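User: Teach me something about this protein's shape.
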Amino acid sequence: MSSVLRLDEGAPDLSGASFDGAGVNFALFSTPAEKPELCLFGGVPERARLALLARTGDVWHSRLSGAQSGPHDCCRAYGPSTS
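Assistant: First, the predicted structure itself:
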């Protein structure tokens, strides 16, 4: 992962994590989510936790410039229980 990372709104039309050659767009579908976060891992422990910045309908999204897509990134969402 690059040492210079910048989070912006990104795009809602790409599902999951999508690498575009200069960064990674993250999009998460969730109706009840109130505060979804992007969790970045470069091993253990977690390196960073960043709030997803934008919401379009029920899709939360952000793009992390300077990032590479990897198997150790995930999203966490806070909100009411749906069970």
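Now, about its shape. The two ends are 37 Å apart (CA to CA). Residues 19 and 69 are 6 Å apart (CA to CA). If you'd like, I can walk through any region in more detail.
User: That's plenty for now, thanks!
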